[in-house]
Amino acid sequence: MTLTWPSPGKLNLFLYINSYRHDGYHEIQTLYQFLRYGDKITITNRLDNQLNLLSKISGVKSKDNLILRAARLLQKYCYNVLHCKKKLGADISFKKYLPIGGGVGGGSSNAATTLIALNEHWGTKISDSILAKIGKIIGADVPVFVKGYSCFAEGIGEILTPILLKENWYLVANNGIKISTKKIFSDPLLKRNSKKQTLNVLLLSKYSNDCELTVRRNFYEVDRLISWLLKYSPSRLTGTGSCVFSEFKTKYDAIKVLNNSPLWLHGFVAQGTNESPLHKFRALATNMFYK
Prior knowledge:
The chain is α+β, with helices and mostly antiparallel strands and about 290 residues long.
């Protein structure tokens, strides 16, 4: 069977860095919401054990692509832990719409979609909790996409509290540059001492991103982007990447600003959603696999 699965983007509506840990990670508090916009991953079952990634990203070796890494980890779990006897293979292709290195979760989302989709294609019936643990091996953001709901994240991002948020419209913009998460978190001037607050306090406070000043200082393109968008709506960085988002009450308002933007600004308009489009699609796909 062949199906094309959604791999949605996300926004960090706020992001605070509380401290640096001796293991190299940072303690954070952040608020995630999904977008009704993202990449597409197409999976076709195979009759053997081969895992073939048919699409490529310039500069990224196939073995390093998070899609293939996720597929191999799941296959390994099925054989070594579940002792599956049947052949578990797939041909996988993708179309990228989310900016790479943009802070909208493209790679982590791709990995999560691969785990959830292959679990359905292979009929292995692994729980989301186990899939999230497998995903955490790949990256701290992956469990968020596996769980599939808007949430407040603490610790290194692994402590998740579900939350219902207003589903605003967003203009998500970038300048086409890629920003390394490692580069931002290793910057000596990065703010790392935000006081830990309760969720209720944070929700009532003005939202911000502790990475924003560091990114603006190191990347003029992002600084220019934020400065331009702030003329029209509250705007800030998402994650550690190059994407900036502006909040709007209606789709019309967001599109109006995008249509009047300068040529150097690239972007898209999407609505926030509390339930991942991936999970909505899975509910439909499950009926196809098990009817």
